[in-house]
Write a structure and sequence with these properties.
Layout (H helix, E strand, L loop, with lengths): L1 E10 L7 E11 L4 E6 L5 H9 L6 E6 L2 E2 L5 H4 L3 E4 L13 H10 L12 H12 L18 H14 L4 E5 L7 H17 L3 E5 L3 H6 L3 E6 L2 E6 L1 H6 L2 H7 L3
Parallel strand pairs: 3-8, 3-9, 6-7, 7-8
Antiparallel strand pairs: 1-2, 1-4, 4-5, 9-10
Helix pairs in contact: 3-5, 5-6
The structure holds adenosine-5'-triphosphate (ATP) and magnesium ion (MG).
The site of adenosine-5'-triphosphate has 12 residues, from strand 2 and helix 1.
Length: 250
């Protein structure tokens, strides 16, 4: 479904600050895979997700989505298919707009077809029903500003918005790093439910290794701009948490 071929990215090329953030990365991700990405600081994890999202373009290589070459597509064009959750819960939503208005924006994306967008009661009710499934009581707060919610509430709503927008892929870059342990655990569980329910393809970057161990059906370790390990579903099940910790002392 998503294919990266020989993708490289160098920041500040030909200067003393040159950094090879990604070096000839090849990656094939199948529909429905939930890929966890771990690795040391600066190993290229966020760069990988940014290249997939189109936040910047690769220096070399190709990116394909469903056999379509999207290498030169802007992040806006890709946002039809690709949703993103950032470490900072304030990114990814419009904090001055209400929950309902944020969902209306998501539903306005061209490919969104699950809901009839409108200002009317039917749209509001449909959104309330969706939000109610999160079990956080937020369905009664749809007129509250997004910025007034807690980080955990916003992260979960951001994922739900991606499903309303009919995104196929969800990219999560340390989505729980700013959350307390309880909110973090709840967000991860809800993300899993949404991924299952909507059969999303997902990438999760995390430094929380118990989550990396528990979630996903594939795990990548990034090291110095390359994929050092790529472990599929069967082997990941056998993997112990201590094995993953040990990768960091190599
Ligand atoms: N916009 C940028 N301009 C210049 N250098 C950058 C930029 N973004 C990332 N880098 C550099 O590229 C390398 C990879 O960064 P990246 O953010 O992908 O790492 P990461 O694996 O996500 O790390 P962390 O775990 O700390 O988030 C680092 O050396 C970083 O300093
Ligand atoms: Mg990062």
């Amino acid at each position: 479904m998503l294919v990266l071929q020989n993708v490289s990215k160098t920041f500040s090329p030909n200067t003393p600050n040159e950094i090879k953030a990604l070096c000839s990365v090849d990656l094939h991700i199948a529909q429905g895979e939930y890929v966890v990405v771990v690795g040391a600081n600066g190993s290229g994890k966020s760069t990988l997700l940014s290249l997939i999202a189109g936040s910047f373009l690769p220096d070399e290589g190709k990116i394909r989505l469903d056999n379509q070459d999207i290498t030169q597509w802007s992040d806006f064009q890709r946002s039809r298919w690709i949703g993103r959750v950032f470490q900072n819960p304030l990114l990814g939503t419009a904090p001055d707009l209400s929950i309902l208005e944020n969902f209306r924006l998501a539903a306005l994306r061209p490919q969104a077809k699950t809901l009839k967008v409108g200002t009317g009661k039917a749209f509001q009710q449909a959104i309330q029903e969706k939000i109610a499934t999160l079990g956080m009581g937020l369905e009664n707060k749809i007129h509250q500003k997004m910025g007034a919610l807690s980080g955990g509430q916003r992260q979960v709503l951001t994922i739900l918005m991606a499903t309303v927008a009919s995104c196929k892929i969800i990219l999560m870059d340390e989505p729980t790093a700013a959350l307390d342990p309880k909110s973090s655990a709840l967000s991860m569980q809800i993300a899993q439910q949404l991924i299952d329910k909507h059969q999303l393809t997902a990438l999760l970057i995390t430094h929380h290794l118990p989550d990396a161990h528990h979630y996903g059906n594939r795990i990548l370790q990034m090291k110095e701009g390359q994929i050092r390990r790529d472990i599929g579903a069967k082997e990941k099940k056998q993997l112990q948490l201590n094995d993953i910790f040990a990768w960091f002392s190599e």
